[in-house]
Structures are given as C-alpha cells and as structure tokens.
Specification:
The structure holds 2 protein chains of 2 kinds. By secondary structure, chain A is of the alpha/beta class. In chain A, the strands form 2 sheets. A 6-stranded mixed beta sheet of chain A has the order 6-7-8-3-9-10, with helices on both faces. Chain A has a 4-stranded antiparallel beta sheet with strand order 2-1-4-5, with no helix packed on it. In chain A, a hairpin with a 7-residue loop joins strand 1 and strand 2. Chain A is globular and about 60 Å long. In chain A, about 45% of the residues are buried. By secondary structure, chain B is mainly α. Chain B is about 70% helix and about 0% strand. In chain B, strands 1-2 form a two-stranded antiparallel ribbon. In chain B, helix 1 packs across helix 10, helix 2 runs antiparallel to helix 3 and helix 2 packs across helix 8. Chain B is globular. The relative contact order of chain B is 0.18. The chains are: A alpha/beta, B mainly alpha. Chains A and B meet through helix 2, helix 3, helix 5 and helix 6 of A and helix 6 and helix 7 of B. The structure holds adenosine-5'-diphosphate (ADP) and magnesium ion. Magnesium ion binds next to helix 1 of chain A.
C-alpha cells in the first residue's frame, strides 16, 4: 500500500486545487465569522509556498481545510486531481505530512525516539501484532537523525517528552516526511521556538523540501523566513490573498514590501 | 501467628485476583486517560458468564477465555458510545454499567447469586488438582499468580507491538495517531476492550475461587481498581526495573493490605466500602501532592 495518491488526470495539472471554497464559523449566531467566500488557490507540484498574514486572516483555517480538520461549507478541494472532501483527516494524513506550531503535537512524548520513528516508518501499512520496533532498522534511524545535526542519534532510547522544543520540532519534521507524501503542511512550526532553534528548524525544513522535492505550504509569522524561503509567497487578509508572488516576482521582494502592505491593510481596517 | 498467616494468604489471594483487573484499568485509565465506569458492570459480567458456563460443564480455563471475551465486547460498547455516538466518557461507562446489570441477571436466569459448588474450577481441577499436598493451602495464590503473570506478560508484549505503540500514542497524543493515518477512536475502542476483558477475567477468577457468582460483586470495583493503579504507579514510579504493569499488581496487593489492616481495627463489615473509598481518596490526594511537586521542577519545553 502506498501512502501517496494515484495521480488522476486533472484539468490544470496542479497538485493542490482549491475551487470556490467557502467557510463560515458559527453561522447565524452572534459569533459568526465569514472567513472564506469562493476562495480559489492552485499550487503546482514541487512548489514551496510561504503564507503570511495578520492574526485571524484565515491561514490556519486554510491548512485545516486542506488537512480535513475542519470541513468546508461548499466548494471543492482537489489533490493530484482527486476530490478529497469525503476523506476524513486521518485518511488524508496518509498523503499529507503536517508539522504543528505546538512541538508536542507532532510526536508521541511518552514513546522513545526509536519507537516514534518505527511508527512513522510504518505509516500507510497495517499496525498489527508484529513487533513495533525492528532493531535491525536502528542504523537507518540513526542515519536519518544524523541529518538533523542535533545529536539525537545518541539518544534514540530517550522518551521524546524529555527533548527540548527545537529538538522535538526537528524530529517531527523528519517523522512527517519519512514516508513518501504528496504534500507537506507547516503551521508556524518555528513560532514556539527560541530564535536560534527556530533558524535551525527552518534550515532543516528547506533542506528536506528540496532534497525530497516536496510540495509544501508553510504558514509563518516570520517575514524574513517568508522572503528567504520558498518560491511563492501569499499574504492573506480576511480570507483572501492580497499578495500572490511567485518565482522572480517573489525573489525581488523584501520585508519592507510586506510591511508596507501590512500597514496599508491596517489603515483600511482603521487601526 | 496462624491468624497473621491467614491474613497474609487472604491478602495475596485477593490482591492478585483484583490485580488482574488493575492491569485492565491501567490500560484504560493510565494509557488512554479514560475513566471507565463500565468496570463495575464487567466485573460481575465475568463472574456470571463463568458461573453459567461452568454449570453447564465447560472447562474452567475455557470459561476464563469466554469471560475475557464477554468483557471485551462490553468494553467495545463503551467505546462505541463514546467514540461514535460522542457520549462523554463518564456517561458511556455509566450507561454500559447500568445496562450490564440486566444482562447479568439475564445470564444468571434472574438470580442474584449462582453457586456452582463441587463443579471443576481452575483451582480444583487440572493444574489445581495436581498440586503437591504441602502447597494445597496456597493453591489460590499460586493459580491467581499464574493468571496474573501470564496476563501481565501478554499485555507487556502487546504494548510493544505496532498496535500497542499506536494505543499508547492514542492516549498520549491522538493527533499523532491521526498524522500516522490511523483513527485514534478505533484505538480507544481496542483499549477499552482490553481493559474490560481483564476486568471480566478478574471477576471470573474470583467467582471460581468462591464457587459463586454474585450480581452485586461489581459495586466498588472502579474505586478498587483505580486505587490499585494510582497507588502502584505512583509508589514505584522511580524504581526502574518495575514496569507499570507489575506496579499496578503490587498496588492491588498494597490496597488490599490497607483494607485488611483497616478492618482489623474491628470496624463493622458494613463499613468496608466506606473504608475503600477513604483509602482511595487518600491515595488520590497523596498522588496529586507528589505530582504537583514534580511539575514545578520541569523545564520550559520551548527551550532548546
Ligand atoms: N474552530 C473554529 N471555530 C470558530 N471560529 C474559528 C475556528 N477556527 C478559526 N476561527 C475563526 O476564524 C478566523 C481565522 O482564524 P485562523 O485561521 O486561526 O487565523 P490565523 O491562523 O490566520 O491567525 C478567526 O477569526 C477565528 O476566530
Ligand atoms: Mg494560526
């Protein structure tokens, strides 16, 4: 059983195609939030998209819609040309890897590094009554951990809960890309880390995405990261893309451009 | 001296038999973080199923397996109510516990107790029958120890399989199970099945020792099992060579010791359940105080 979706012929060849998606939270109540209205987005295979935007602009919800953590009200979401609305979150996870802002979400803190990696490697296969950890794979796991340059290869029997946030996040990144996936989703995955480990994890992310040629959508609070990494940049505001720059256009942008746009938006909103 | 020995034998017998239930509740309460009240119903379920099967002449060991299966089925119902029908964990347990009362009566044919004196049990036939004379007085301890040990070892083995690791993740971080492409709800149902299977097995062994199944024997089992689990896991947390599965069996023996000690103060028998609850409350408070102290020493998880 493969973890990746079979490619179906689709009209525009995009890896992700979000078509006319609308999403309103708490409709009809005083807490109603109309977030997306006929939202469209296409991401070609191999693109690394950085997403920025103010708080509440809908970045996390966009990722949640893709991963199936929240259902869309209407519209369609295609991955590799296949409509995925009917798939539950855990079913989509077979071809989508995800790293969360909270470092404790991407691993099981009580299990050891070794056990976490053994589980991750088994993704897409049945989880039956065979031994969880195959000791003969230890060397392979060690070599994977060495790529992180954090010394984790010497701690494989420690419970993940005893690692620091940066170490856990690097491990979560490794784990989410251990089996072949179609799409990597990163939701402010460096936001809870101190500046130094945040740089480390971001460098690793970029290396992984390039080496494994992944398609990735990364939400970040860090404008420098958004400018420096990826080949497409989106700025979201109230459920719409106010900036969408790819390739050369993105390469020519700097943080001032983003800040100016932010200020412009804030003026419009009146604060 | 004889009195003391008698007490000790009694403590070990019951401590080990209830220790089997503690293994099950360890799975639901400690691994899955699920306060499972259906235990009060699955314990007598195991006893009633056993009584019915032994009465019709079934091999007592096979009756043990059937009791386990019946408990596991009841656990699946609790899990189904909670996972699929989104009923809260406590209420799911209460519903199953209440429903099982009628099921148990149905199995016993409407009687509150069923005796099966002089029928072969695991203590009187087979292994229990061939024990050498000097060991006879300890046959209940020995056979209960055998069942508890086999149960513990099988559980240890299971917890190291792929499914077992996934079960541990489901309790610790359900989102991780989702990320692995699996349904954490399903793991919860499996865990509840295992937990209630052990509980029914415990009820089965107790009924074979007494050669009686009692509909009311479930009252207080949740408290007894939780107390054993909490006492065991918190007392032996720092002892490296004692796994949690062994610790909860020790916890059950210790809890039984406390009960016997309390009853030696010549309290009326009717006070038993009250004493059970009080000891559990003390264990809970002590455990909270200990873990409160531990939390303060923890480092900030966002530091590298
Ligand atoms: N599950 C939810 N229930 C109700 N409102 C929600 C939910 N998730 C998000 N929202 C609302 O949608 C808006 C966008 O949230 P979010 O996507 O988390 O923003 P961002 O990640 O860009 O900061 C916010 O106003 C938030 O209150
Ligand atoms: Mg967010």
């Amino acid at each position: 059983m493969s973890t990746q979706l079979k490619s179906e012929s689709c009209q525009n060849g995009s890896l992700i195609s979000i078509q006319n998606v609308s999403k309103t939270f708490n409709p009809g109540s005083v807490n109603e939030v109309v977030l997306f209205q006929n939202f469209n987005l296409d991401v070609p295979k191999g693109q690394f998209v950085s997403v920025v935007g103010s708080n509440g602009s809908g970045k996390t919800t966009l990722l949640n819609l893709l991963c199936g953590s929240v259902p869309a009200d209407s519209g369609a979401i295609f991955i590799k040309g296949q409509e995925i609305s009917a798939l539950k979150e855990f079913q989509r996870a077979r071809f989508i890897g995800r790293v969360f802002q909270d470092p404790s979400k991407g691993t099981c803190p009580e299990l050891s590094i070794l056990e976490n990696m053994a589980l991750a490697e088994n993704k897409g296969k049945p989880f039956g009554l065979s031994m969880g950890v195959n000791r003969r794979r230890t060397d392979f796991y060690r070599s994977q951990l060495e790529m992180l340059h954090l010394g984790l290869e010497d701690k494989i029997n420690l419970p993940v809960g005893s690692l620091s946030g940066g170490q856990r996040q690097a491990l979560a990144l490794l784990i989410s890309t251990m089996t072949p996936i179609d799409l990597l989703i990163l939701d402010e995955h460096t936001a809870a880390l101190d500046p130094k480990s945040s740089e480390t994890v971001m460098e690793l992310t970029d290396t992984f995405i390039r080496e494994k040629q992944l398609t990735a959508v990364m939400v970040t609070h860090n404008l420098k990261f958004a400018i420096r990494y990826g080949n497409r940049l989106l700025m979201m505001h109230r459920g719409e893309c106010v900036i969408d720059a790819a390739d050369e256009q993105k390469a020519s942008m700097d943080t001032d451009d983003l800040l100016n746009k932010f200020n412009e938006i804030s003026l419009e909103v009146g604060n | 001296m004889d009195v003391l020995l008698g007490l000790l034998v009694n403590i070990l017998e019951e401590g080990l038999i209830y220790g089997i239930m503690a293994l099950g509740v360890y799975v639901t309460y400690k691994i899955l973080d699920f306060p499972d009240l259906s235990v009060d119903g699955t314990f007598p379920l195991g006893a009633c199923v056993t009584a019915a099967l032994i009465t019709i002449g079934m091999n007592p060991w096979i009756a043990c397996l059937c009791a386990f299966a019946a408990g596991a089925a009841a656990g699946c119902v609790t899990g189904f109510l909670n996972v699929k029908l989104k009923i809260s964990d406590l209420l799911s347990g209460i519903l199953v516990m209440t429903g099982l009362y009628s099921v148990n009566l149905f199995i016993t044919g409407g009687k509150a107790t069923v005796q099966f004196y002089n029928k072969p049990t695991i203590f009187s036939s087979g292994l229990g029958g061939i024990l050498p004379e000097p060991l006879r007085p300890y046959k209940v301890i020995l056979i209960a120890l055998l069942v508890a040990a086999v149960g513990k070892l099988l559980l240890d083995l299971y917890l190291r399989t792929k499914s077992g690791l996934l079960l541990r993740s489901a309790g610790d971080n359900p989102q991780y199970v989702v990320s692995l492409g699996r349904n954490p709800g399903r793991m919860k149902i499996i865990g509840l099945a295992i937990g209630n299977g052990f509980t029914a097995l415990s009820g089965c062994i107790l009924s074979q020792q007494a050669e009686t199944a009692n509909i009311a024997s479930g009252t207080g089992m949740v408290v007894m099992a939780l107390a054993s689990v909490i006492i065991g896991t918190s007392l032996f947390r720092r002892v490296k060579w004692i796994r949690s599965t062994l610790a909860v069996i020790f916890g059950s023996i210790l809890y039984k010791t406390c009960l016997v000690a309390a009853m030696q103060l010549h309290l009326p028998t009717n006070a038993l359940k009250l004493v059970m609850a009080v000891i559990f409350a003390i264990a809970l408070v002590a455990n909270n105080m200990a873990s409160g102290r531990r939390k303060k020493q923890n480092v900030n998880p966002t530091q590298i």
